[in-house]
Design brief:
The structure is a homodimer of 462-residue chains. By secondary structure, chain A is of the alpha/beta class. Chain A has 15 helices and 20 strands. Chain A folds into three domains: 286 residues, Aminopeptidase; 121 residues, Alpha-Beta Plaits (2-Layer Sandwich), CATH 3.30.70.360; 41 residues, no CATH class. In chain A, helix 2 packs across helix 4. The longest helix of chain A has 19 residues. Chain A is globular. The two termini of chain A are 18 Å apart.
Chain lengths: 462, 462
């Protein structure tokens, strides 16, 4: 470990409380990317980050427009062209959070309790992206320089599947050019079991809507002779799965690369017990494809979930209608080598085959993301492994991630660099759920690990 | 026709515009019974009716408490004990109405257009109950007396299935004592085809809720190993019907009294063509049990509808969750001799048999109503038939109603009197739907018919 990184780590420890309060400031801004009503908050969040990075001494800091929400960019290239350049990617946008979903505290008034900060975005991804900002600050405010060049790219549309990031990268390939990309937007199963992801699932996110009568009808006047759209919907969606919990869409599994015995043995080491599974989720019994263990089901196998359902009257009291329409959001997590657009076509064909003539059925594609897979014996991955050992204090495992960071596969392909996913969250941080939280200890150990990672990268032959 | 009724009819014609404006005043009050937020409006509606009936010269006018929303009562008994007494029942409460459901005008700012008044409650039941108030006024303001004694009972909980009306009637049997009950809360298929209902469907209204994980889960972290509650819901609800559109709940049809050939021949006369059916509903194709014609399906056969569905995220943009829960409102329209509570038990057994161990399934009973059936050769029904001939100007048909007025069977049983259902609405008035409307011509012809009915009752031997 260099003196440079040791001084930076000491600085990070001494400034831990201030770092935490700065994070809390960020978390107060409800930067929801999926809701046009929050466009002003997105802007405010971008301005906060721009101003903050400029204050820390980063160069070329700017809010860069896209066709949607802007990118915030900053760089420090003082290590010079002979040293590696790392591109840090993070996202400053968050998913919705409503008190009535079960939050115990205001999701945008961060609350510290038992060593955790409760707030929407705490772990996904404001807490984790901030780790890299604070790691770079710790170098710049001590030695006045970092061991490698650092570029920071923060986007505001990750939670709506980054519709504008690919064109942005394509347009700024020179500005963004780097030897490796590091992303912290994932998690480990316990604080002593850090994980580096070498694979992510992709996604096909769809919306189905069924239209029946022109208006809601009185069920007493028309019930019995009208195909209820909510009924048509459940009849169709009820056929998405086979009785053995495999997905019934014909051809769905055709392009899935089978897991090797070697990888299955590695995955088995991080499998959950039924007990761990139940206590993490609160469900009464295990479910899924019995040919695969729990860890495989949630990370290495493709899935299909109904994310939302709506029809008719959901308020208090009875309302005796045949609803005019019914809809659902459905999404599939994909693995290599499934193609999200091909999967959408398969869904479309299947649902068309189930659609009765008594209603109108429409399936729309909302977003897609490709699955990603990297080897883990390359220097950029091995440097990350050493950073956890030295900075975090535990040897990491290489695992597949069940979630999707749609741009990972795109960044790798467009920039021709590996993407190292160093997650500093916990599996049960409740991201996308009520009471999302982030452990203050994880935040602080994350900063030290990120400091060491820059040092280890400098000592690798990239 | 007596001079008394002729004078009353002239008065009604001369005061038609004022009557209409009074109705519009009533329609401005959003007296939703199913939503506690509108309790004040319910009270305001009751007070308006009390004050109005008192001004017209009714006696013993009062707002009478129940365990829920109050009853408004008024009477005129000046015809004396040798004359028949008619009990008018109506309801002043309405179902919800939201602009976003597709209203073209504010549902509580009545709008006149093309001879119709658009407002929630216009036809169901404010317009129709007011017909009887105005008929009685027309007698009292001309001759100073009516040909029979009249009692008016207006309740505020019909749209939530009248949970407190039976105890109210039981407690006030002497006050309410009458020879016949008349209810105008139904419809005819066209203005020249008036109908008297001799049967109504009953109801079992239920809510199913499925609980899976304790909180919404990230579909990337847990998708594939958790039984999605929305999926479990659609899998269960998708098995409610058989492929031939009969209801799959075992035993559901056991107590249904088969239609006789004679009644089927009568019903066939009022059947809808596929063209009429499609233009009334806007659906692309006919649906239902092919063993019965459309009119039978919507009036003489039991049904099952999903009235609402909810789960997870229904807002804009994608949200990648496994929802913690999913639910639906489901209701069955019943015919003689189905028992609503027995039907609930059959649903419960069936849904229990479908419930998987991977989620928690709860079925709750929300409301019930018994089906009703009366003979149509009795004097009270025949007087109604003559009233339509003379007052409306067309001979009515006796039909079965597909809707439910839960108290009809209860009033008949508790008071031992027939209930004559003289509907003054149109089948396509859009009740319970956006843009509910009431024809001004129907309102005015209704008042004249109601005037004649009192006269015809006086001349019947009850």
């Amino acid at each position: 470990m260099s003196d440079l990184s040791e001084a930076a780590r000491q600085y990070a420890r001494q400034n831990a409380e201030r770092f935490r309060h700065e994070l809390i400031e960020m978390l107060r801004i409800p930067s929801l990317s999926g809701d046009p009503a929050h466009a002003g908050d997105i802007r405010r969040m971008a301005e906060w980050l721009e101003s903050h990075m400029r204050d820390l001494g980063l160069d070329n800091v700017q809010i860069m427009p896209t066709a949607g929400h802007p990118v915030v960019y900053g760089e420090w290239l003082g290590a010079g062209p002979s040293r590696p350049t790392v591109l840090v990617y993070g996202h400053y946008d968050v998913v919705p959070a409503l008190m009535e979903d079960g939050w115990h505290t205001d999701p945008f008034e961060p609350t510290e309790k038992d060593g955790k900060i409760y707030a929407r975005g705490a772990t996904d991804d404001k807490g984790q992206l901030f780790i890299h900002v604070k790691a770079l600050e710790s170098y710049l405010k001590t030695a006045g320089r970092a061991p490698v060049n650092v570029k920071i790219l923060l986007e505001g549309e990750e939670e709506i599947s980054s519709p504008n990031l690919v064109p942005f990268i394509e347009e700024h390939l020179d500005l963004l050019a780097a030897d490796v990309c590091v992303i912290s937007d994932s998690s480990m199963r316990s604080i002593d079991e850090p994980a580096i992801l070498h694979s992510l699932r992709g996604m096909t996110y769809m919306e189905i809507e069924i239209h029946g009568p022109s208006d809601d009808l009185h069920s007493g006047l028309w019930g019995g002779a009208v195909h209820n759209p909510a009924l048509a919907l459940v009849e169709i969606l009820g056929k998405l799965y086979n009785p053995d919990h495999t997905i019934a869409v014909p051809g769905f599994y055709d392009d899935v690369v089978p897991l090797t015995d070697e990888e299955r043995a590695m995955i088995a080491k991080t499998d959950l017990t039924e007990e761990q599974y139940k206590s993490s989720t609160g469900v009464p019994a295990i479910w899924g494809d019995a040919d695969y263990n729990i860890r495989e089901r949630i990370s290495a196998r493709p899935t299909l979930d109904i994310n939302g359902l709506w029809s008719g009257w959901a308020g208090p009291g009875p309302k005796t209608i045949v609803p005019a329409k019914a809809g659902a959001k459905i999404s599939s997590r994909l693995v290599g080598n499934q193609d999200p657009h091909k999967i959408f076509e398969l869904f479309k064909d299947y649902i068309d085959s189930l659609a009765p003539p008594t209603v109108q059925v429409e399936l729309k594609l909302i977003t897609t993301g490709k699955p990603a897979l990297f080897p883990f014996d390359i220097p950029e991955m091995q440097a990350a492994s050493r950073a956890y050992e030295k900075g975090w204090g535990a040897e990491p495992v290489f695992t597949r991630g069940g979630g999707s960071i749609p741009v990972v596969a795109e960044i790798a392909a467009l920039m021709n660099i590996p993407v190292v996913m160093m997650g500093y969250g916990l599996d049960d941080d409740g991201l996308h759920s009520p009471n999302e939280r982030y452990s203050i200890e994880m935040f602080e150990r994350g900063i030290e690990t990120a400091i060491v990672y820059l040092d280890e990268l400098a000592q690798s032959s990239l």
